[in-house]
Specification:
By secondary structure, this protein is mostly helical. 48% of the residues lie in helices and 9% in strands. The strands form two sheets. The chain has a two-stranded antiparallel sheet with strand order 1-2. The protein has a two-stranded antiparallel ribbon with strand order 3-4. It is globular, with a radius of gyration of 18 Å. The structure holds zinc ion.
Length: 184
């Protein structure tokens, strides 16, 4: 949808990964191992031509949905232990460790290679994103069938829908119908 806002930097990378599927209308960008490999390569997380197994796809989708749950906490949801466990598993599997770059700045980098390492880079991006004031603006759409990760650019951080024109108006129409049914 054209009017959905996107974030920049590490917050933007996490957002793009979570939004690699549109739960409501499709498409699913991570539809098979080859598409997962292409997505990770296109985002600079995996070397081109690296092998991608069906188990990698399962881990990637699991991590993506755990991140979606985590972002839900930014819009008033609770943090679920299963999501926390999945994030910790991805961090452990990729063997993230602190590395100082030539610029003197520390970052987390995976020791593991392949898709496991690439997913570790997404966990590292999440770690860095949480230090960014933009993180709190990354929220989940309030529509239970949408759950798109949107970037809230509103002045007082009060947006509830990924796009007013679609999910916002659908919610308003639903409220209107419910109120009229109650008075009938
Ligand atoms: Zn939405």
């Amino acid at each position: 949808m054209a009017d959905r806002e996107t974030a920049n930097g590490q917050v933007g990378l996490v957002q793009a990964f979570v939004n690699s599927v549109d739960l409501q209308d499709g498409p699913e960008e991570l539809s098979d191992p080859a598409h997962l490999g292409a997505w990770l390569t296109a985002h600079g997380l995996l070397e081109a031509g690296a092998g991608v197994e069906p188990a990698d796809l399962k881990h990637a989708v699991g991590l993506r949905e755990a991140l979606r749950g985590l972002i839900g906490a930014n819009s008033g949801g609770k943090v679920y232990p299963i999501d926390v466990a999945t994030l910790n598993e991805a961090a452990t599997a990729s063997r993230l460790r602190a590395r100082f770059g030539s610029d003197g700045r520390a970052r987390l980098e995976p020791e593991a290679g392949g898709v496991t390492g690439a997913l570790g880079r997404i966990v590292a991006a999440t770690f860095a994103a949480m230090d960014d004031e933009d993180w709190a603006r990354l929220k989940l759409c309030g529509s239970p069938t949408c759950r798109w990760a949107f970037f809230d650019r509103s002045r007082n951080h009060s947006s509830r829908w990924c796009a007013m024109a679609s999910c916002g108006n659908r919610a308003k129409a639903r409220r209107f119908r419910e109120q009229h049914a109650a008075h009938a």
